[in-house]
Amino acid sequence: MMPIHQSTYMDPTIRDYHDKQTDADRAVCDTLFDQITAALPEATRKIWHGSPVWFLDGNPIVGYHKLKGCVRLLFWSGQSFDEPGLKNEGSFKAAEARYTHIDDIDPAALQRWLAKARDLQWDYKNIVKRKGELVWLGK
């Protein structure tokens, strides 16, 4: 899978994040950026808590972050996707996939997950206001 980031607008803060990665990790980040941006063109994106994150109506949907030995792709509502390849993360509804090389990314699975990310959402945007209670947005 070849990254297409040359033709996709990347905010300078996200480009700076990618440029700080090793070549292998940058290739993973570039590919994830391109695939997420193509699948969720209506989403806004920015560096949030130090990592690239995409939002729909102010609600965090998907992002990635460099960990010590991999790049972690995180779906905030991923536990609701009922998809193989995603592992539960944290105490809420998030699920993750981890990549050490661009070839680890399964494009078909990623596209399925991204489609579900748009439609299956928990309301993280208002979690503080609701004192830690998540509300199902469904969609």
> Which range best describes the helical content: under 10%, 10-25%, 25-40%, 40-55%, 55-70% or over 70%?
25-40%
Rg, rounded, reads: 14 Å
> Order of strands in the sheet with the most strands?
1-2-3-4-6-5
Largest sheet: 6 strands, antiparallel
Mean pLDDT reading: 88
Strand tally is: 8
Share in β-strands: 25-35%
Provide a count of the helices. Answer: 3
Low-confidence residue ranges? 1-7
CATH topology: Aspartate Aminotransferase, domain 1
CATH architecture: Alpha-Beta Complex
> Any idea what the shape is?
globular
Short key terms for the protein model shown above:
alpha+beta; Aspartate Aminotransferase, domain 1; two-stranded antiparallel sheet; globular; 6-stranded antiparallel beta sheet; disordered N terminus; 139 residues; single chain
Describe this structure as you would to a colleague.
With 139 residues, the chain is α+β, with helices and mostly antiparallel strands. The chain has 3 helices and 8 strands; from the N terminus they run ααββββββαββ. Helix content is 27%, strand content 27%. Strands 1-2-3-4-6-5 form a 6-stranded antiparallel sheet, covered by helices on one side. A two-stranded antiparallel sheet has the order 7-8. Residues 1-7 have low confidence and may be disordered.
